[in-house]
Write a structure and sequence with these properties.
Helix content: 10-25%
Radius of gyration: 16 Å
Shape: globular
Structural class: mainly beta
Distance between the termini: 41 Å
Number of helices: 1
Largest sheet: 12 strands, antiparallel, barrel
């Protein structure tokens, strides 16, 4: 393992460790984004690969803790109890709500809004297709693609291309171990955005599993 020291100052943690087992699909041959792709905020675009872990709490509510490889808390995710729609609130390490995710009732569609309210739409998903708010083409901007057996490994591609910008590995919980997602994000890609996609992916995997049983 090697320590990667950031060069950009406005980051929520000082360093990240990328474990070699986390990055089998994102290699130096994968072309990085030529410019910072800020969906949520430019401060979440690092000039180096970022490794994060989403740990899912064992509770009826959807709660997650997002840490770096050094176990520093980067984001927390909570959901309210007894609401018509499913909601996820993504908060930074200081408790500020940066994103509000809402799944439409009886539809496989998530909407992501900036901050606490539902005023400024950032992106929405239809199953595994991801559309930015200003998309008027009908063609997805990003796509979640299953890349392993039993829905254990997924990648995030740019639109319908083969360019991988993130990898998500799903690890099921056993006994007292929590279910978690190991996420690796390519340089210059908004890692808060990728965390939000991982939350929608968790819901998609759960619903698909229920339909098959």
């Amino acid at each position: 393992m090697a320590y990667i020291t950031p060069t950009a100052p406005p980051l929520p943690f000082e360093s990240a460790i990328i474990h070699p087992h986390m990055m089998p699909l994102i290699t130096p041959t994968t072309p990085p984004s030529p410019f910072p792709t800020a969906i949520i905020h430019p401060q979440y675009c690092a000039p180096y690969p970022v490794g994060l872990v989403l740990k899912k709490e064992k509770t009826i509510l959807h709660k997650y803790t997002v840490t770096d490889i050094n176990d520093n808390v980067i984001f927390t995710v909570t959901s309210p109890f007894l609401t018509m729609h499913q909601h996820r609130y993504v908060r930074d390490a200081h408790g500020n709500t940066i994103l509000h995710l809402c799944r439409e009732l009886f539809r496989d569609r998530w909407k992501a809004f900036r901050g606490q309210n539902m005023e400024q739409l950032e992106f929405f998903t239809r199953n595994v297709d991801v559309f930015l708010a200003n998309n008027s083409t009908g063609v997805c901007d990003f796509k979640l693609v299953e890349a392993g057996f039993f829905a254990r490994t997924w990648v995030v591609n740019i639109a319908e291309s083969d360019i991988v910008v993130a990898q998500i590995k799903h690890k099921l919980g056993r006994f007292f171990k929590r279910e978690k997602f190991m996420v690796t994000i390519s340089p210059n890609i908004d890692y808060a955005f990728i965390v939000a996609l991982t939350l929608t992916l968790d819901d998609y995997i759960s619903r698909r599993r229920k339909r098959r049983t």
